[in-house]
Design brief:
single chain; about 350 residues; alpha/beta; Rossmann fold; 2 domains; five-stranded parallel β-sheet
Length: about 350
């Protein structure tokens, strides 16, 4: 099956990922970016939302940039299954013929996109970092890095529809809601039957969490090879706690078992876009920097004045983290204690 005549296809679609009624940040990022791309093409943005009891969050998608929301709300799709989601999205795509389909490059998105691509007989450009429109050809231009960002490739899909792209979380800006926007909510029937679905969900286990995810954190303190050992990493954790930040890491702390895999930032880890990033003993090698270079404010602490991270850091501190981090911790604790002291009034003696 395929969309068919390219001239018949129109509109930009975004698959919206959600879990227990919580919208994935990357989906909201894509709605904002999709809005910009759609305006260049003069087309509508359609969000497709699948789950159970998701009607309450559908209107939020209008505020984030969607003109229409296609909603599949049914107990049978409460949990993500490749088979069910592919069936629903493919059926709607074959019916309405979207020109572009954007999907977040999450665990779910990376599982869903290739299955949809095969079902719709189209290509899919994966793990993109930039999106634009070639107005002359009316094609989406998807940019992705190769060879550790030494090369950037612009990829187009001129002969098949929809043009499918997956985008890593954190690389697009999360735009503010516009609660004055209006749109259309379209409810569709879910025709699936449990006995026809091959995969059965026996139990759902939630991963333990110590707070918000790295991708959604406003402040991140990252540990690199320069922390040296477990004690150095514990200092980084203490600094992060005092700042109200999430802890991230390069590959070494993860490989050493000091922190879990979900804290790794970089090409083989998470892509983040915090307001504040502090790199402790981070060299700035491309494997890591590819995942954090879009941070608004970057502060680097490293003993090597020629470390790559100083080439793009906003502020750099050259020195040993075993001296600098304890000094920062001491100052933060002092400031916190000072702000908690009650105001005192000096009494004059009688």
């Amino acid at each position: 099956m395929s969309i068919g005549n390219i001239q018949e296809s129109s509109g930009l679609w975004v698959f919206v990922e959600q879990s227990d009624g919580t919208l994935a940040r990357v989906s909201l990022e894509l709605l904002g970016k999709g809005r910009d791309l759609a305006e260049k093409l003069g087309v509508d943005v359609t969000a497709i939302l699948i789950g159970h009891n998701v009607s309450e969050i559908a209107e939020e998608l209008i505020f984030y940039g969607a003109d229409r929301v296609i909603i599949a709300d049914d107990p049978i799709v409460q949990d993500y299954r490749t088979e069910t989601h592919t069936e629903i999205i493919a059926e709607q795509a074959l019916k309405e013929k979207p020109d572009i389909l954007l999907i977040g490059a999450t665990c779910i998105g990376r599982d869903l996109a290739p299955r949809l691509s095969a079902r719709l007989n189209t290509g899919c450009t994966a793990d993109c970092t930039e999106l634009d429109i070639d107005k002359e050809m009316r094609l989406i231009v998807a940019t992705k890095p190769f060879f550790g960002r030494d090369l950037m490739a612009d990829i187009i899909c001129p002969f098949h529809r929809p043009q499918m792209v997956t985008v890593r979380p954190g690389v697009m800006e999360l735009k503010d809601q516009d609660r004055k926007r209006h749109g259309e909510l379209i409810y569709i029937d879910v025709k699936l039957k449990e006995e026809d679905i091959k995969v059965k969900v026996l139990e759902t286990m939630r991963a333990a969490s110590d707070g918000i995810s790295l991708e959604e954190a406003d402040k991140v303190v990252a540990a690199g090879m320069g922390v040296g050992n477990q004690d150095g990493f514990e200092m980084v954790k203490e600094l992060a706690k005092l700042l109200g930040a999430q802890v991230g890491a390069t590959s070494l702390p993860v490989d050493e078992g000091w922190v879990s895999e979900d804290k790794k930032i970089g090409q083989t880890g998470k892509t983040i876009r915090p307001k504040l990033y502090i790199g402790c003993g981070v060299s700035g090698a491309i494997q890591h920097s590819a995942g954090m270079i879009n941070s608004e404010l970057i502060i680097a602490i490293n003993t090597n004045p020629k470390a790559d991270i100083f080439n793009f850091a906003d502020y750099g501190i050259i020195g040993n983290i075993n001296e600098i981090i304890p000094a920062l911790i001491k100052e933060l604790k002092y400031s916190a204690n000072k702000s908690l002291r009650p105001a005192c009034k000096r009494l004059k003696p009688n």
